[in-house]
Amino acid sequence: MLIYPQGNHITASPETPLLQIGGSKYGKPTLERSVNPALSLEDGARPALVSLDASWRPNITVGPPFEVGLCRGGSLQLRGPHSYGIGDPFLGTIREQWNNGIRRAYDGRPRFPWAEAVTLPVSLVGGS
Predict the structure, then answer these.
(1) Which end of the chain is less packed: N or C, by CB atoms within 10 Å?
(2) CA-CA distance, 122 to 64, in Å (whole number)?
(3) Residue 10 forms beta bridges with which residues?
(4) Secondary structure string (H, E, C) spanning 19-78
């Protein structure tokens, strides 16, 4: 649930299991494709970090350090607050694995039934 200063609120639901504050152009697709109500809090934090990282390149108003902390329902105890800066090895690993997974997904996608394989001359794809 997100409560605004004016007192009104919005609530997550099975149809919309996440709430996002601010712009939603870049990182939201990551969340919508990977977050569901069955995820544990810890497993939900990783796509949130990926979402922030995905927003960083195209949006100048988003950037490291990204801060992540978990607070279980019914508790005000913050667990694992951590700041992930540009050179953080964990953030780099998350980014690399996500990017590699997306590339594998694109490489493995089916071709359109009507599309013919196109072979570019070597000079157009970076060869000599």
Answers:
(1) C
(2) 39
(3) 2
(4) CCCCCCCCCHHHHHHHCCCCCCHHHHHHHHHHHHHHHHCCCCCCCCCEEEEECCCCCCCC
pLDDT at site 19: 65
Q: Residue 119 pLDDT more than 80?
A: no
The structure's pTM equals 0.66
At residue 2, the 3 state secondary structure works out as: strand
Residue 57 has which token pair? 């390149």
Q: Provide the residue type at 117 as one letter.
A: A
Strands (E), the chain: 2-3, 9-10, 66-70, 79-84
Cis omega (within 30 of 0) on the bond before 5? no
- Angle at alpha carbon of residue 68, lines to 67 and 74, rounded to 5°: 135
Task: Give Cα separations from 113 to 104, 122, 126 (angstroms).
Answer: 20, 26, 28
If we measure between CA atoms, which residue out of 5, 3, 33, 31 comes closest to residue 18? 31
* Amino acid identity at 18: L
Average pLDDT in the 42-51 region? 88
- Do 90 and 83 touch, CB atoms closer than 8 A? no
- Both tokens of 56, joined, read 């960083």
Q: How many residues does the chain have?
A: 128
Q: Both ends of the chain: CA-CA distance in Å?
A: 57
